[in-house]
């Protein structure tokens, strides 16, 4: 009897993983397709400059933390932040350049996390250039039949960044906020949530 039980246990040990693999592969494929749809929507909204459309890809409880430490909770606060920093009459950022690099990514069924470096640079209205190397963490999750952005966090090295060297607290506040939203959040989420290359796990 003990030998029979041991044989059964051994059989299950080797066959159960095989049974689960097709289902896992199917789920991964479905997640990949859904994430691609999210990316397509973000890209389209970003190219059109359509903030209304882009906000529909944010979870109702989304939390976004900017480089200046300001936190937005929910799409309404994100919209207010965007209007204040990117379209206001006193905006200071003329252009934002970034080349996001995804260092790693984990997919956990119905949610995923990616992280990396934004390799970002801000060009101010004065023509001055401020090179940053912001690091980020982005989280997306499945909500019903859609995938949405639930959290985004970016930060810079507090001891080695160009803003304090510019000698202006006001500059630090505006660049840390306005540039991040317009050039990093949209650019990263639209183009780099899930890059075509294989992730490092």
Short structural description:
The protein is an alpha+beta fold. It has helices at residues 2-48, 51-55, 75-86, 162-165, 169-191; strands at residues 58-65, 71-73, 93-98, 101-107, 111-117, 120-124, 129-131, 135-143, 146-155. The chain has a 6-stranded mixed sheet with strand order 2-1-9-8-5-4. Strands 3-6-7 form a 3-stranded antiparallel sheet, covered by helices on one side.
- In percent, how much strand structure appears in the residues? 25-35%
Overall outline: globular
Number of helices: 5
Number of domains: 1
User: Distance between the terminal alpha carbons, to the nearest Å?
Assistant: 43 Å
* Biggest sheet statistics: 6 strands, mixed
InterPro entries: NTF2-like_dom_sf (IPR032710), SnoaL-like (IPR037401)
Keywords: Signal
Organism: Chthoniobacter flavus Ellin428
Protein name: SnoaL-like domain-containing protein
Structure description:
This is SnoaL-like domain-containing protein. Residues 42-146 form the SnoaL-like domain. The chain has one domain: Nuclear Transport Factor 2, Chain: A (Roll). It has 5 helices and 9 strands; from the N terminus they run ααββαβββββββαα. A 6-stranded mixed β-sheet has the order 2-1-9-8-5-4. Strands 3-6-7 form a 3-stranded antiparallel β-sheet, covered by helices on one side. Strand 4 (101-107) and strand 5 (111-117) form a beta hairpin. It has helices spanning 2-48, 51-55, 75-86, 162-165, 169-191, and strands at 58-65, 71-73, 93-98, 101-107, 111-117, 120-124, 129-131, 135-143, 146-155. The radius of gyration is 21 Å and the shape is globular. By secondary structure, the protein is an alpha+beta fold.
